[in-house]
């Protein structure tokens, strides 16, 4: 999720649908390098003058049609994987598209953890960016767009790129590792249509038709159908943001007196520990600008080396100066601060690092458990690390009132369905991969729960979940399948990773509630879930381990989409029963049996009586079952596993090394 000034301030015009043109045209998805879906009837479509004759030739097949209402479409027979092929379309003009492949096409959607590009994880996977030569993995990346008046017909930007060192940096990291695994296993080209948007809620990805079951979201959408309202919103938000930052700049004592480069004593500067946050270290500063500084001593040999600053993550924005020169800046918390220092800037002796921090979310400082160091390297001596942890000094430069709330246009209901999904609906696809939910966590509890009208979720198990997302996400999947009109195609999704500090005692958790909603979505046909609680980071909503996530999604695809017989997920809770004061949990997907990772006792298992006050329990793990009991719980009614924002150390796995999903289950109706 991105908390930089909302992108809506940067978008100044709505994207508009294509209209009939004098020339025959094709959609952007059908450009050079496209991957088209094998083994399904193949749609080729576009626009032309009314009644214009259009001829299409592709892979030895030919079809002719006439444009009606400015549109034309032909359907070619299903074809096996192969290529490269040439697509020729002729009418009053002639079009040619080259280097097209037939393979499997997957839509990658959701929010920032699906969007996060390989470039953002390049230090974790340096060999991927430098050495990947897989031209049969291709991605079509769609920039941020929004639309409120209905589905758009085409994208205004985007092109197909191949997984080569020259083009791979912008690929979705999850999407790439997913595609890489599939290519290894299937040997057919993989195309990813990448449409995620950081921070986007699920309702933004649903059609207006589907939102009819959610009147509060449908009501929220209506004002944005008025162009004047949209333009006024953009203008007002931009004015508010510009005013706040202008006032901050004018008030900032550090800018006035050139704290970035001036020779400064420590008078008026207070000590602080890095990493850490100012407020937890006794400061009352929350909003505005604060400067922090540190001096480090380097030898002449050290100063002559290639240097990179690692500054973890900073809340919120930063401008980093070394010896008076700006070396990097970032506008919001989440991107890693990794700044290359220009050659010749460091010197023997004292070197000054000064950082201007802009705080607009009330908690300025340096995120803990991140890397804070100056990395020095050369070919002869290798790498040397100069720690930047420890004592720094800070000085408040300006205090501000809170920034006025803004409206992110592409977070509004239906906005992303219309602009980012709808133009792909004519494409034949293999399926969807989805990583989203963080932006819906705050609506995961029982307050404001949406009970479906019309029996859309009639199964008795629906009563178990108190999460709006339980219904919203299932309806999103139904909506997309209905819109694509390609049956119940595979829909694979990532369960939210661990996040936030771990707790020692059982507790309530909105993150756990949303994970439970995701788990129940597996009741829909042709779905699979990649559990990621062991691939998260407590201090980062964007964990770096995207390879584990992509590979687990691929396991689900191999089973659901490709019919492979394999263990594709961790242990799945099948049944719950009670025997006296003990609870028996039975699991499927165990392989050769359940496993307590690392040995020892099963962690994060809890029981509750009718009061639903959970206590840690003990457990006996057998081949495909767990027997659970707890002192003081004579009549257990509820059982939970890994029920926390961050169930650190959760250790229930199967023999394939895949983790069990967190869960909550009721025992009230199963007592023996």
Automatic annotation (TrEMBL):
Pfam families: SASA. Gene3D superfamilies: Galactose-binding domain-like, SGNH hydrolase. InterPro entries: Galactose-bd-like_sf, SASA, SGNH_hydro_sf, SIAE. The keyword Hydrolase applies. The keyword Protease does not apply. Residues 1-22 form the signal peptide. Keywords: Hydrolase, Signal. It comes from the Bacteria. Coiled coil: none annotated. Residues 104-231, 425-554 form the Sialate O-acetylesterase domain. GO terms for molecular function: sialate O-acetylesterase activity. One of its GO terms (biological process) is carbohydrate metabolic process. This is Sialic acid-specific 9-O-acetylesterase. It comes from Cellvibrio japonicus (strain Ueda107).
């Amino acid at each position: 999720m991105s908390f930089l000034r909302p992108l809506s301030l940067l978008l100044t015009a709505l994207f508009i649908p294509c209209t009939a043109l004098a020339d025959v045209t094709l959609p952007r998805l059908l450009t050079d390098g496209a991957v088209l879906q094998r083994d399904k009837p193949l749609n080729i479509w576009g626009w032309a003058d009314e009644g214009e004759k259009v001829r299409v030739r592709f892979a030895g097949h030919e079809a002719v049609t006439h444009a009606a209402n400015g549109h034309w479409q032909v359907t070619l027979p299903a074809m096996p994987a192969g290529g490269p092929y040439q697509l020729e379309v002729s009418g009053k003009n002639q079009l040619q598209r080259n280097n097209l492949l037939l393979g499997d096409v997957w839509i990658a959607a959701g929010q920032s953890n699906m969007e996060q590009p390989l470039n953002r994880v390049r230090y974790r996977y340096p060999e991927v960016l430098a050495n990947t030569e897989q031209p049969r993995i291709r991605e079509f990346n769609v920039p941020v767009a929004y639309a409120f008046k209905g589905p758009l017909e085409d994208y205004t930007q985007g092109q197909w790129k191949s997984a080569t060192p020259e083009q791979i940096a912008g690929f979705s990291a999850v999407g790439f590792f997913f595609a890489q695994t599939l290519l290894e296993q299937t040997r057919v080209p993989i195309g990813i249509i990448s449409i995620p948007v950081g921070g986007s809620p699920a309702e933004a990805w649903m059609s207006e038709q589907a939102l009819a079951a959610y009147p509060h979201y449908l009501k929220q959408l209506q004002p944005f159908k008025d162009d004047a309202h949209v333009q006024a919103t953009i203008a007002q938000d931009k004015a508010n943001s510009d005013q706040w930052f202008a006032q901050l700049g004018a008030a900032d004592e550090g800018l006035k007196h050139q704290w970035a480069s001036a020779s400064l004593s420590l008078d008026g500067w207070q000590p602080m520990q890095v990493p850490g946050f100012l407020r937890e270290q006794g400061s009352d500063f929350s909003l505005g600008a604060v400067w922090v500084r540190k001096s480090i001593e380097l030898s002449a040999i050290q100063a002559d080396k290639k240097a990179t600053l690692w500054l973890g993550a900073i809340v919120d924005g930063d401008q980093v100066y070394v010896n008076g020169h700006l070396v990097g800046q970032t506008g919001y918390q989440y991107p890693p601060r990794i700044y290359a220092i220009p050659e010749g800037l460091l010197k023997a002796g004292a070197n000054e690092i000064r950082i201007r921090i802009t705080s607009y979310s009330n908690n300025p400082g340096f995120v803990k458990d991140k890397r804070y160091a100056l990395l020095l390297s050369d070919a002869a001596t290798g790498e040397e690390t100069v720690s930047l942890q420890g004592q720094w000094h800070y000085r408040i430069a300006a205090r501000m009132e809170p920034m006025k709330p803004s409206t992110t246009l592409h977070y509004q209901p239906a906005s992303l369905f219309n602009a980012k999904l709808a133009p792909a609906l004519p494409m034949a696809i293999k399926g969807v991969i989805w990583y989203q939910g963080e932006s819906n966590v705050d609506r995961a509890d029982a307050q404001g729960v949406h009970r479906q009208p019309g029996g859309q979720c009639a199964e008795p198990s629906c009563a178990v979940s108190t999460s709006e997302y339980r219904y919203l996400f299932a309806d999103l999947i139904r909506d997309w399948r209905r819109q694509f009109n390609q049956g119940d195609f595979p829909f694979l999704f990532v369960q939210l990773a661990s996040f936030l500090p771990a707790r020692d005692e059982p507790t309530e958790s909105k993150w756990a509630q949303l994970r439970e909603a995701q788990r129940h979505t597996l009741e829909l046909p042709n779905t699979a879930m990649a559990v990621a609680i062991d691939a998260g980071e407590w201090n980062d909503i964007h964990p770096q381990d995207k390879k584990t996530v992509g590979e687990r999604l691929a396991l689900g695809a191999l089973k659901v989409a490709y019919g492979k017989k394999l263990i594709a997920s961790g242990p799945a809770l099948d049944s719950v029963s009670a025997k006296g004061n003990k609870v028996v949990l039975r699991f499927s997907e165990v392989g050769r049996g359940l496993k307590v990772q690392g040995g020892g006792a099963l962690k994060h298992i809890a029981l509750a009586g009718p009061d639903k006050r959970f206590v840690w329990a003990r457990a006996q793990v057998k081949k495909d079952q767990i027997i659970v009991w707890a002192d003081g719980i004579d009549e257990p009614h509820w059982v939970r596993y890994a029920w926390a924002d961050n169930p650190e150390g959760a250790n229930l796995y199967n023999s394939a090394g895949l983790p069990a999903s967190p869960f909550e289950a009721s025992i009230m109706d199963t007592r023996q």
